[in-house]
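Sample entry (52 residues):
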Amino acid sequence: MSHVWLIETLVELRIYAVQNGLPALAEHLEMAIQLAHVELALREGDGTGQDK
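Predicted structure, serialized as tokens:
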């Protein structure tokens, strides 16, 4: 299953936060984006692509 939608949604939320003067939220969303990339890559790396 593709999780591209998740990353795209987090990016859109981060853009909204930046544009609306919410820098702390934008920073946390950036961290969430990075974490999502890492976790999704790890899931794909286990060969199943499925939740454990």
